Amino acid sequence: MSRKTLFTVLLGCLLLVWLSGCSTLWTVASGVRKPYSGTAIDTYIIGSADASTLESMCAFLDLPFSIVGDTLVVPFMSPQGIEQIVNPSYH
Question: Quick one: which of 49, 59, 61, 63 has the fewest CB in 10 Å?
């Protein structure tokens, strides 16, 4: 892949991330109350065999923003959601 093509793809990914918003914002706005849900979506997409290269690159670029965003919203999560972080076997 040439440098120009790589630059174009990365610029396109940054634009998509900016237009679509961070995964954390998307999950919080949709009512998901699971801690680190935005980070979980990004890591799922990155590791998914079904995701395209472009989707994986966008998720990779979004991941740091989701980690920060998820950390900031943890205090506003439900007690059950917090328990899932402390005790992963909690149901």
Answer: 49
